[in-house]
Amino acid sequence: MIPSTAVSRTEVAEGTQSVFLENWEFIYEADSGLWYSLAFRDDKGCVSMGQAIPMSPFSLKLFEKEWTAEQAQSFRLIETPDEITWEWQDSSLRVVLDVFKSCADPMISFRIRVHAIGNQSIPVEGICYRYPALTVDPLNPAKLFAPGQPIAPGSSDIDLVELRLNKDVKEPLPSLPEGWFLPTPDQSPGWISLDYEKSEMSFSIWMQDHKATAFPKIYGVEQGVSIEFEHQLADLISEDRPLTSEGPNLYVSSGGTEPHRIRVMANSLSSEAINRNEVDHFRLIQIVPHPKANWTKHLHGAALQDWIPRLEQMRDLGFNVVYCLPVWLCQDGLVYAVTDHYQVDPEIGTEADVREFVDRAHELGMKVLFDYIPQGIGDRSPLIDEHPDWLVRDRWERPFGSHGWGPKPGAPKNGHTYSLDWGHEDIQDFMLDWAEWMIRTFDIDGFRTDAMHWKEPNFSKNNPNPAWQTTFGGVRLAARLRERLDSIRPGLIMLGEVAGPIFSTMHDSLYEDGWILKKLNQGWLSGDPYWTAQTWQQWNKEAEQGWPKEQHRFGFTLNHDWTSLLEIQAKSRWRCSVAIIHLLSKPAPFVFYPELKGFEAFYKEALGLRESLVNKGFNPESIRLDNADVFAVLWRHPIEHVAYLVLSHLGTNAE
Q1: What is the pTM of this model?
Q2: Residues 383, 386, 388, 390: what is their CA dihedral angle, to the nearest 10 degrees?
Q3: Of 196, 400, 548, 619, which one is least surrounded by beta carbons within 10 A?
Q4: How do beta strands 619-622 and 191-196 pair?
Q5: pLDDT (tens digit, 9 = 90+) per residue, 545-581?
Q6: How is residue 133 annotated by DSSP?
Q7: 23 near 106, Cβ under 8 Å?
Q8: Do residues 545 and 179 touch, judged by C-beta distance below 8 A?
């Protein structure tokens, strides 16, 4: 066993050297610094990562090209008792990789610093951390644990060898091709773990940076499993403006999975959470208050005056929260392409209609949430001419739509949205003042924050901030929104559309992961399940281990973004079976208004049962059954010896 804090360098084979940091050994090519292997050893066992051909432990995305350690003209290594530093350089770039001890445990962290050399500016689009492949031993297989990721629970490292990564994919969302995982920490915990049952060793790698999102990538190479983290940290660097990426953490321990996972959680964002409002008591219905809303089919929109008489029916069915899509002046029924944040769209009604709607909901004991949409504006908004510096732009100063929701850079306006630089303090102030005006003017109860996850960096030369500050500007805006709401009055609600742990401290509740949920619901409704019911329940149990303990979630069959499922749902004999798992399990229920038609009695009975169970203090608990197609939840009372069992058959042979 290597003595604590010892650092030493030895020659392993011709042309290679070995360097130690505590229990970790790195073997690299002496002249180039390229890595052969990385291994952890103690008196209990070993976990090794290695390959026959040396590799660069990073790659830089420099727009249309890539820069790796293979292209460096010089290399040197610097050692201290607590840190090892690899440094590569050519005539234009210097890249520094720091590996350092994170805490008293054998946990290490990685950091990359990128410097421009000389009088030049270099656009960096991202940094990818790369590691030698984890060795797969058929005699000591490892189980994969990747909470919140779209991979079936129980997968092993042997299964992962069959995974192949499509490295040609530049933008993995929304398709998430083979090997790409959901990004961290805005949409997942970014935690990948392998548990070796025979040796009782556990290996974990995770990354949760506050500057920009990172995509974990996991795939098979020969007889090993390779892991990468593609950090979408971007900036126009210069000699006096370097770029620093806080990268993944590595932890290996022996003695079982539970203490290992507790230690990882204690060093991750998932240890943070809030619990301001009693979200467990919420039963939410979503409506479209625009009669001509037309960005997708089957929205079933109506003006606010038409919704007011329906509020009592919604209350009687068991709903106590109404979430309204945007009511502001927009382009051609595209309610998210707002052109005036302070004017109600005439197709929807007037300010007086909005107040009447909210007042009537409150009379009925219902809360009202509005959509909060800071990610973009309609491409015909006057703000574009008034504040051209508010738009996200590429290197050639061309505005564009975020995530493909608007025109591409250089393309003509297409009647949709332009991306706003929500890392810009003036935009944040505008959006915060708008939120306060909505609260004070209409007495609403809070917001559903729209699409606050990562967006593209702002490379405009007029951007006073680093380009990456735009990427997670929505996170910082959400934190400021929470502070503003708390200063107005206690109890105001924030419901987040995305699921990542970085949003857990400012939102009362988040969505269940929409990427995987849509696949599941569509499969069950179509009679072609993506996973079995019991696989989904086991996935949820594992996912909860990576989420903050007090974080609430909303579950749903569909919403306004998934209206194509309405046609499938209307023809499906499993529609009630699918609805039950979202109405009577742990997440709070979220129902899109068009789902009710013809099934009002069903929803009234299910929501009434949930209300009764929650009000009496029952707690839901997923249980395992032998029948893989049956979803099972047991509602237990903490004191009384009574329980309610909820079963829903989601198999193709259900009658």
Answers
A1: 0.94
A2: -50
A3: 619
A4: unpaired
A5: 888 877 899 999 999 999 999 999 999 999 999 999 9
A6: P
A7: yes
A8: no
